[in-house]
Design brief:
8-stranded antiparallel barrel; globular; Porin; Glutaredoxin; 398 residues; 4 helices
C-alpha cells in the first residue's frame, strides 16, 4: 500500500478561523468562538450572548443554549453532556476554557471575539461521497465514508464510520490553498477536518478533541457502503430470553422480562456521554410518542462516572435536555463493571445499539451504531424503522 500523502499544500491559513467580521450592534452581542485543539488548529463557531444566555451555533445546522452565571467571570454547563465552560471578560470579548467534567485534565482554550465567523460561499462540491481509509498510525486502519453537500451556499458534510458519524460539519473551499476545511462543535464533539482532492481521489486529516487525530485517503464512490449495522451484533449461543433488574432514574428498580411483554419493544444501549446516542434518542422518542402506547422503549445507559448517584444525575440531565419521555435505567456506572453481562449479546460493539423485539419477546433485529441527521443514510433509516414498527404493531392487533 502506498504511503499516505501528507497535505502540505494546506498551510496555516487553513488552520485558522480568519478574522471575525464586524456586525451591526444588536440587543444580542455576537461573537466568533474559537476552541484551540493545538498550536495551529482552532475550531470556530458563531455565538451570541443575550442576558445570561449564550447561544452556540454549530455551523448552519443546529444551535443550543448555555445558561451563564457570574458577572466578569462566567461559568456555564452545556446541554446534554458533561461539558462546561469558564470565561473571563476582557477588553474585547472573553477568554477562558472548555472542559469536560467527566474526564481528568480535559481542558481546551476558548475565546469569544466580537464579530462573526462566515465561511466563504461555495456552489458545489467535487463529489457527494468518498470511500476513505482512516490511518491512525502503527498499522491501524479503518474504513469510513466522507459525505459532502451544500447548504446555504456552505460546504457541509460528515464522516460516517461503521458505528456512527462525526455529526454536523460546516466549512468552505479554500481556493488559494486548493483544499477544503470542515468544522463542528456540538458541546461534546469538537472536530476539524481538512482535505484536498485530485481527480477522483481525496487526501485529508481529522483532528478531534484534545488528542484525537488521523489522516485519510480515498476515492470517489457514491455507492460505497460500510458493514451492515444489522449484521454486526449477535446474540450469544446460550440466549433464551432477555431479563434484567436495573435502577431507574427515580431510584426504584425496574424489572424487564421479554417473556412477559405484550407489545413491540426497543431496548436502546446508550450513554449520556455519546453524541450519536443523543441523535438516536431523539428518534426513538419520536417513535415512542408517535405510536402512543403501542410500543415500549427503554434506554439502558452505560455510564463511567464511578457512582450510581453521579450516573443517575448525568442521565437525568440528558433526559431533561433532550426532552425525551421513554423510561431510562442505569445499566452500569463504573468502568470496572462488566458491560456485556446485562444483555445476551456476544459483545457491545458500539454505543448506541438498539434491540428490537416483537410483542412475543422475540428479537427481530439488532441495529449497531447510528447514522444521524448529518448522513445520507438517516432518512432511509427513519422510513424503514417506522415501517417495521407499524408491521409489528399490526401483528398485535391482527
Amino acid at each position: 500500500m502506498k504511503n499516505f500523502i501528507i497535505i502540505g499544500a494546506i498551510s496555516m491559513a487553513l488552520f485558522s478561523c480568519g478574522n471575525p467580521k464586524e456586525v451591526e450592534n444588536t440587543e444580542a452581542l455576537t461573537y466568533q468562538g474559537r476552541i484551540l485543539l493545538n498550536d495551529s488548529t482552532a475550531v470556530c463557531f458563531n455565538a451570541s450572548i443575550y442576558g445570561d444566555q449564550l447561544t452556540v451555533y454549530n455551523g448552519v445546522h443546529e444551535s443550543f443554549d448555555v445558561k451563564l452565571e457570574g458577572e466578569d467571570t462566567l461559568r456555564g454547563t452545556f446541554p446534554v453532556f458533561a461539558s462546561d465552560l469558564w470565561l473571563v471578560k476582557r477588553e474585547e470579548g472573553y477568554e477562558g476554557l472548555y472542559f469536560r467534567t467527566d474526564a481528568e485534565n480535559y481542558m481546551l482554550p476558548l475565546t469569544l471575539l466580537p464579530g462573526h465567523h462566515n465561511p466563504g460561499q461555495t456552489q458545489d462540491v467535487p463529489v457527494n461521497q468518498y470511500h476513505i481509509i482512516r490511518d491512525y498510525g502503527n498499522g491501524k486502519t479503518r474504513p469510513a465514508l466522507l459525505q459532502l453537500g451544500i447548504k446555504e451556499n456552505k460546504v457541509v458534510g460528515t464522516i460516517a464510520t461503521s458505528t456512527g458519524d462525526l455529526r454536523f460539519l460546516t466549512g468552505e473551499r479554500i481556493i488559494d490553498e486548493g483544499g477544503y476545511v470542515l468544522m463542528g462543535f456540538d458541546g461534546r464533539f469538537i472536530n476539524y477536518v481538512t482535505f484536498t482532492t485530485f481527480e477522483d481521489s481525496v487526501f485529508g486529516n481529522v483532528w478531534s478533541g484534545k488528542t484525537g487525530y488521523y489522516r485519510f485517503k480515498g476515492v470517489a464512490d457514491d455507492n460505497a457502503t460500510l458493514e451492515d449495522p444489522e449484521e454486526m451484533s449477535k446474540l450469544r449461543e446460550d440466549y433464551t430470553h432477555i431479563e434484567w433488574h436495573l435502577p431507574g432514574l427515580d431510584g426504584d428498580t425496574v424489572h424487564f422480562d421479554s417473556r412477559t411483554i405484550s407489545k413491540p419493544t426497543i431496548l436502546a444501549i446508550q450513554g449520556s456521554w455519546c453524541p450519536n446516542c443523543m441523535d438516536e434518542g431523539r428518534v426513538l422518542d419520536q417513535y415512542y410518542r408517535e405510536f402512543d402506547g403501542a410500543i415500549d422503549v427503554f434506554g439502558l445507559s452505560y455510564e463511567y462516572s464511578g457512582t450510581l448517584e453521579k450516573a443517575t444525575a448525568a442521565v437525568q440531565k440528558m433526559e431533561r435536555d433532550l426532552g425525551t419521555s421513554f423510561p431510562m435505567v442505569i445499566a452500569t456506572y463504573d468502568p470496572k463493571q462488566d458491560r456485556n453481562a446485562i444483555l445476551p449479546l456476544e459483545k457491545i460493539r458500539s454505543y448506541p445499539t438498539s434491540i428490537m423485539l416483537d410483542h412475543a419477546g422475540n428479537v427481530v433485529k439488532i441495529h449497531t451504531g447510528f447514522y444521524g441527521p448529518s448522513t445520507k443514510e438517516y432518512e432511509g433509516y427513519l422510513k424503514h424503522t417506522r415501517e417495521e414498527l407499524k408491521a409489528l404493531v399490526a401483528e398485535v392487533n391482527g
